[in-house]
Design goal:
Largest sheet: 5 strands, parallel
Bound molecules: adenosine-5'-diphosphate, magnesium ion
Number of strands: 9
Helix content: 40-55%
């Protein structure tokens, strides 16, 4: 959870997301516009790309910050408990209802309702939830008293592709209602320029948490972290750095403290980078050329993957070409 002490407003939001990647900068600019308006926001992105972080950042930087942030993990609540968990119930509604119980929606009280992984909302409840979101009121199961839903609603989804047969999918009308604005988070491999800053921040946090000295990341470590494709995204980076902070004996965080089985495995580029102890510039050049190669030399596609503009890529290639010829 982003620290509440960071303050409110767009400045505070920018601090939570200091980024050097153009694609992510565009995301942050959109988020700035959303902190103080109540439009429903859908955040999408791969697992670990920061969907919860974005939802919490919108909350702590917005006008509802002093109110509760209520996260409902739609994919982990058993379908038959979903309704009573959300709406609560009145005593005697069903056999186990021994007393009145307020639901999670009641606990929002002017704060943010975060519907995490909306693909997991049981099909049978989607129409009811849509109605509640539209009318901004609901009743407990077995109850008649209307209760106001005073909340900013944020939803997240990892993938909304049609589900396999037999499992449910999300109704279009509910999806449209929840996604007045959609924020698409790029995976970490498309934010290579942000990896060093994120790693430094996680190293600082981990040192404090584990009562270890603050140590810098060695250049080779940063080179390896920047070259790895991060299938688990920011979450994986955070845990790799956490582990390094705990295991490292030296005065810097070295490649020896990185998990060999994932980070240093196979990948030819990474393996030769660590053998050759390349500079970051050399690693950048070789990685960019490998990406270009993998997309058949298509400059626009390569630039998109690399998280830079096409113009920047052209300039870089020109510079590399000159350096080659000078050898
Ligand atoms: N921009 C960021 N700055 C710092 N930490 C981040 C950032 N984005 C994500 N994280 C951290 O990475 C981890 C995974 O993020 P999370 O929001 O849970 O991903 P998701 O919900 O997309 O699976 C969390 O520990 C989160 O705090
Ligand atoms: Mg999540």
């Amino acid at each position: 959870m982003p620290a509440r002490s960071s303050g409110r407003g767009p400045e505070a939001l920018r601090r939570l997301f200091s980024t050097r990647t153009p694609a992510f900068r565009a995301v942050v600019r959109t988020l700035e516009k959303l902190i103080d308006v109540d439009v429903n926001v859908l955040v999408t992105g791969e697992s670990g790309s920061g969907k919860d972080y974005v939802a919490e950042a919108l909350h702590v930087c917005g006008v509802r910050a002093a109110r509760p942030f209520v996260r409902i993990d739609c994919s982990s609540i058993p379908p038959d408990l979903f309704e009573s968990e959300l709406f609560g119930f009145e005593k005697g509604t069903f056999t186990d209802a021994k007393a009145n119980k307020p639901g999670r929606l009641e606990s929002v009280r002017g704060g943010t309702l975060y519907l995490d992984e909306i693909g997991g909302i049981p099909a049978a409840l989607q129409a009811k939830l849509l109605r509640v979101i539209e009318q901004r009121q609901f009743t407990r199961l077995g109850g008649t008293r209307p209760i106001e839903l005073d909340a900013r609603i944020i939803a997240s989804a990892t993938d909304l592709e049609p589900r396999r047969q037999g499992s449910h999918s999300l109704r279009g009308d509910l999806l449209y209602r929840l996604s007045v604005v959609t924020i698409e988070l790029p995976p970490l491999r498309e934010r290579v320029d942000d990896i060093a800053a994120l790693a430094r921040r996680f190293a600082r946090d981990a040192a404090a948490r584990h009562h270890r000295p603050r140590r810098p990341l060695a250049d080779e470590t940063l080179a390896l972290l920047s070259a790895y494709p991060w299938p688990g995204n920011v979450r994986e980076l955070a845990s790799v750095v956490d582990r390094a902070v705990v295991l490292e004996d030296g005065s810097e965080l070295t490649p020896a403290s990185l998990p060999r089985e994932t980070l240093l495995r196979g990948d030819a580029l990474v393996a030769s980078a660590s053998r050759g102890l390349w500079t970051l510039a050399e690693l950048e050049r070789r990685y960019a050329l490998a990406v270009l190669d993998s997309v058949g030399g298509n400059g626009s596609r390569a630039a998109k993957i690399l998280g830079i503009s096409r113009k920047t890529l052209i300039e870089k290639r020109r510079r590399w070409g000159r350096a080659e010829r000078a050898k």
